[in-house]
Amino acid sequence: MISRETARVAAFKDVVRFGCRIVVKTPKIPVICTTWVRNFEDCGASPLSVVENICEYIAFKRAYNIVKGR
After folding, report:
1. pLDDT of 14-43, one tens digit each?
2. Which of 12, 21, 30, 67 is 20–30 Å from 56 (CA)?
3. What pTM does this model have?
4. Which residue range forms the structural domain that includes residue 52?
């Protein structure tokens, strides 16, 4: 019997890419950002955390520029 954790780890290792979509609501228009990263293993970082951080940064930077009129 395979534990849930072992099955989850095995499933993540088979993933080719990780993606994230973030929507930031601004007074003018919503900013939608989608980013993808390839699955990298054994680097000491979670690809899911990395893609979420990248997506957040890009989305909030775009939203800031829209609000400031840049």
Report:
1. 778 989 999 999 998 999 999 999 888 766
2. 12
3. 0.72
4. 16-68
